[in-house]
Amino acid sequence: MRIAIDAMGGDHAPKVVVEGALAAAKEWTDVEIILVGNTAAIEAHLGERPANLTIRHTEEVIEADDEPVKAVRRKKDASMVVAGKLVREKEAEAMISAGNTGALMTTGLLVVGRIPGIERPALAPMLPTIDGNGVLALDLGANMDATAEHLTQYAIMGSIYRNKVHGIANPRVGLLNVGTEAMKGNELTKAAYPLLEQAPVEFIGNVESRDVLRAGCDVIVCDGFAGNIMLKSLEGAASVFFSVLKTEFTKTWYSKLAAAILKPGIMKFRKQFDYKEHGAGPLLGIQGLVLKCHGSSDANAIKNAVRQARIAIQNDLVGAISAEINHGK
């Protein structure tokens, strides 16, 4: 299997991307990793190259502040775009990038292309939960607006992903809403509820945002506007929580002593809710596997993204989604 990695995408590229790719290449020798980017910049951090790691040279880079559609259309030799072309032309089964999120979604749509029958691809990162298993949330930003039919497709794709990649036999699917009662919500959620009841998923009903991290479901579906607000709220709350904790634990020698005692438990808790441990979020609905890493990902996050891609390819994730969406057509 072949996995293309955008070596120039991300806050710490290409150094951490190369380090993560190297670690993955050494651990999984059945994976051929293609680092896409400037050869000189990549080789500066490469050292001894494993036999299953190659470089595809490119001259251009899509920057974090580039306008996504213009950048993808004009920068034909950008590392992200070339990685997408490798997937489209079947020279790679998957691509990974920590670069510009909007540009990656545009690359998925315009370069790789949608699975026939999919109306809107969805960005589906994992959110941490108290049981450590996480919840797949989609859509968290690929589409600001959605229809009830889109949410139903999100539910199907998310359910298949959790089954194929995480081995959950019957993933529980919840609909993000302001209340648990079936009649609650706006016009979108009210219209989506009966469609989800009829969909080939284990639909458990509405789930309030306060319960998302309590492991009440394995997949949570919503439109990109509500989903992105939920994501940013969770990230902000976590950041404030750990910042306040640090301040309180360094105020007096009593609190410093308490911090020393509690440190192992706190570090375990922080690791459990660290996005780096979850690798990358897939852009589901694309004719090929496209994975988005956090912009500030470290080498471990890149390696974990390769692990995700490897499992998804082995279990024919894209084929399974296509077969289910187009069943009976």
TrEMBL record:
GO function terms (MF aspect): phosphate:acyl-[acyl carrier protein] acyltransferase activity
Coiled coil spans: none
Keyword entries, A-Z: Acyltransferase, Cytoplasm, Lipid biosynthesis, Lipid metabolism, Phospholipid biosynthesis, Phospholipid metabolism, Transferase
Catalysed reaction, written as an equation: a fatty acyl-[ACP] + phosphate = an acyl phosphate + holo-[ACP]
Pathway listed: Lipid metabolism; phospholipid metabolism
GO biological process, one term: fatty acid biosynthetic process
Function as written in the Swiss-Prot or TrEMBL entry: Catalyzes the reversible formation of acyl-phosphate (acyl-PO(4)) from acyl-[acyl-carrier-protein] (acyl-ACP). This enzyme utilizes acyl-ACP as fatty acyl donor, but not acyl-CoA.
Subunit structure: Homodimer. Probably interacts with PlsY.
UniProt protein name: Phosphate acyltransferase
The organism of origin for this protein: Paenibacillus sedimenti
